[in-house]
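Field reference: sequence -> structure
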Amino acid sequence: MAKIDAFFQLLHDQGGSDLHLIAGQQPAIRIRGDIERIKYDVLTNEVLKLLLYEITPEHKIKQFEETGDIDFAYEIPNLARYRANFFQQKYGMGAVFREIPDKILTCNALGLPAVIAKLATLPRGLVLVTGPTGSGKSTTLAAIIDEANRLRKDHIITIEDPIEFVHKSQSCIVNHREVGLHTKSFTSALRGALREDPDIILVGELRDLETISLAVEAASTGHLVFGTLHTTSAAKTVDRIIEVFPADEQLQIRSTLADGLRAVVSQVLFKRIDVKGRCVALEILIATGAVRNLIRESKTYQIASMMQTGKKYGMQLLDDGIMDLYNRGWISGEDAYIKANDKSKFRPLLKSPPTDFTEV
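Structure field:
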């Protein structure tokens, strides 16, 4: 047992999501969204280096010492997996570990709308799950892939950096590939995947032009592709994909994306006030024929109004999702106001709304 495992056990027992180990500071864990210090000595760089290198693969140590940044996964049997990120900072090393639960929760157990589970049954197309770091994108995608794994008889390939949730083959064959360990890059893995008889491809992160281009192409040629982006709304996600391409290619990609896109799910995590835990508010865009026409015609600014009238298809604006959580008594009015897009809807919920000088 590695010495650092005691910190992971504490993180797990406290119900935390992230462990922070930084040279020059006390260890800390994130619980229900807040950073809490651990009663422990301030970590020196020498002590931290010994703790971290004990669990780090040799090739990753070499990479870290050359570049100052690495990602990898660490697993403690019968406890959990951890996504690790090491970085260099002013006072020495730093590391953040995100706990990835051993058990994959279903869409139903996560309380996701029925339309999210239906995304696992799509025959082809591009489905994007977006949101800020730590908003639960990987958890939502894992639930959708689990749904497909149980219901379909297909070949699923996941491409991640590092591998997070591990799916055991059920009705499907599932292959996990880790960038840097099993393949050179997302791009090379995605290009290779197209020759590996896949039905479903999960791309952990759409980082650059080539990866996005290949993902859109795969979705347009009969594969079901899932991916993540760090965007905050459905309309901004569409714009972000198009803006990655050179100006002279944007007209073509609009048409290709309009044909291939099936859904965009944007999410934000909230701290619950009724019980210990967190909950998620979702924005859901389903690519109906009308939505695809808006994308083709460069009218993405009209997507929000289309979503307001598309509730029968399972569409939902983020603010409606937030208001639903507030009406259930799960989240505070202050939290709802802070994370809402249209704050005017949420100001009446507060006795003394804060003045945001950026919105004057």
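Note: The chain has 13 helices and 13 strands.
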